[in-house]
Amino acid sequence: MTSEANPTSQFTDTDLTVIMCAYNEIERIGPALEEFFTSAQERPEVVEVIVVDNGSTDGTREFLKGMDEANPRVIFNETNLGKGGSIRKAISASTGRYVVIHDPDLEYKAADVWTLLDATKDANATMGLGSRVIGGNVSYEYFANYLGVRLLTWSINLLFGARLTDSATAMKMLEGDHARRMKLRCSGFDLDFELVTSTLRLGGTIIETRAEYSPRTVAQGKKLRAYKDGFAALRAILSDRFRAKRKFTITSGIDARTMDPGSLDDAD
After folding, report:
1. Does residue 151 fall inside a structural domain?
2. 252 falls within a domain
3. Distance of CA 215 to CAs 78, 106, 109, 219, 221, Å?
4. Backbone angles phi, psi at 120, to 5 degrees
5. In the chain, N or C: fewer CB atoms in 10 Å?
6. Would you put residue 8 in left (φ > 0), alpha (ψ -120 to 50) or beta?
7. Residue 254 domain-assigned?
8. Distance CA 90, CA 99 (A)
9. Segments forming the whole domain that contains residue 227
């Protein structure tokens, strides 16, 4: 699928925007940034990193304020917008030809970002998913989380005619223009699924590559709640299956970068 042109792509030299959303990640945000920038040293791409702090209270906010580097760019939410709301805000601020979501919690490896980027470009795909399932050796701390991922991915495959293995992965690569023109509504973890279903409804192609995964526990800071977030995700999947296709994109002429997540909810 070739995305419709977005004005941002006409004046950017950025090859990849990396979105990191943080909420109380003081123990991991520094190592996560270091790991990513180390992985990028041998790459030719021009990269921007956007970190969104979602109202942290554990020192993450102060750590980010103390950084001298221009890259990453840091956005501070005055109120907690939810993970999905923070991602939407970062997407609207992005300039990259490709946009990747890469959580700063060290559950995923930064090196897999580049594998996913190369595969997405080689396949001329609209979206790439870092699948935790491909190749076997699936690792989850909680069986409810594993079961939820399998059921929700099966639902997407059934309702949208897809053949995906891991729609819930937090590592998602998108064409930048495609990401910025999507009219996204979800504000929580359900956005992970809305990104996939919206891409499918718009006729996009999705590929998957293997992503190494080291899950953490709730005690270590994991914020996903299997039942609450799982039902919200299922609601988003069903809603997108029956929503009119014209409602999936921002009206031509509106620059998503000038809009906040709340205003995007109301744009036609």
Report:
1. yes
2. no
3. 29, 9, 11, 12, 10
4. -65, -45
5. C
6. alpha
7. no
8. 10
9. 11-246
With b for 16 or more beta-carbon neighbours within 10 A and e for fewer, the 108-124 pattern comes to bbbebbbebbebbeeee
Q: Which amino acid belongs to residue 7?
A: P
Tokens found for residue 99: 């946009």
How does DSSP classify residue 76? Answer: E
| pTM for the structure as a whole | 0.84
Based on its alpha-carbon atoms, the radius of gyration of the chain, rounded to whole angstroms, reads 17
Helix (H, G, I), strand (E, B) or coil at 51: strand
28: three-class secondary structure by DSSP? coil
Residue 62 buriedness (CB in 10 A; 0-12 / 13-18 / 19+):
exposed
The CATH number given to whatever domain includes residue 232 is 3.90.550.10
Domain tally, the chain: 1
The phi and psi torsions of 44 (rounded to 5 degrees) equal -85, -10
- Mean pLDDT in runs of 10 for the chain (268 residues)? 35 88 95 96 96 95 88 92 95 97 95 98 98 77 69 95 94 97 91 96 96 72 61 89 85 43 42
Q: Report the residue count for the chain.
A: 268
Cβ(268)–Cβ(251) below 8 Å: yes
User: Is residue 130 packed enough to be buried (19+ CB in 10 Å), middle (13-18) or exposed (0-12)?
Assistant: buried
Q: Is residue 265 part of a domain?
A: no
| Beta bridge pairs of residue 165 | none
User: For the purposes of burial, counting CB atoms within 10 Å of the CB of 225, is it exposed (0-12), middle (13-18) or buried (19 or more)?
Assistant: middle
